[in-house]
């Protein structure tokens, strides 16, 4: 990922991730429509796949919110500062998860 000390690289990485997530969220989830199923198992499989896709979509929306919040923190000069304890977030954590809002200790404590 981007060097967490280079705001231009961080912004580019976050903007790219936001664009990827928006593209994913823009793809429609296939609904039941006029589909006919040959068996209850096929219908159940389709329902399961739809529920899985909806759960993934919810996860992508949450991640997009986190990325957008990271961009706001970058603009405000607060990027890389833990929102729980106020200490710096380790560069390694930000390189792995550029939208991280908390340091690893606070993230563990929140679990």
Task: Describe what this molecule looks like in 3D.
Helix 1 packs antiparallel against helix 2. The chain has 111 residues and is an all-alpha fold. The mean pLDDT is 88. It contains 4 helices and no strands. The chain has one domain: Four Helix Bundle (Hemerythrin (Met), subunit A), CATH 1.20.120. The longest helix is centred in the middle third of the chain and has 37 residues. Helices cover 63% and strands 0% of the residues.
Structural category:
mainly alpha
Topology-level CATH name: Four Helix Bundle (Hemerythrin (Met), subunit A)
| Form type | elongated
Helical content class: 55-70%
Outline:
The chain has 111 residues and is mostly helical. Helix content is 63%, strand content 0%. The protein has helices spanning 7-26, 40-76, 91-96, 104-110.
Topology, pairings included?
Elements: H1 7-26, H2 40-76, H3 91-96, H4 104-110
Helix pairs in contact: 1-2
């Amino acid at each position: 990922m981007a060097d967490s000390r280079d705001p231009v690289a961080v912004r580019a990485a976050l903007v790219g991730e936001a664009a990827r997530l928006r593209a994913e969220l823009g793809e429609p989830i296939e609904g039941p429509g006029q589909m006919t199923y040959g068996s209850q198992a096929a219908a159940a499989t389709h329902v399961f796949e739809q529920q899985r896709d909806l759960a993934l979509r919810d996860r992508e929306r949450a991640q997009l919110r986190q990325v957008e919040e990271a961009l706001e923190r970058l603009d405000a000069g607060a990027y890389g500062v833990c929102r729980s304890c106020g200490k710096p977030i380790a560069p390694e954590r930000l390189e792995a998860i550029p939208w991280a809002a908390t340091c690893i200790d606070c993230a563990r404590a929140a679990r």
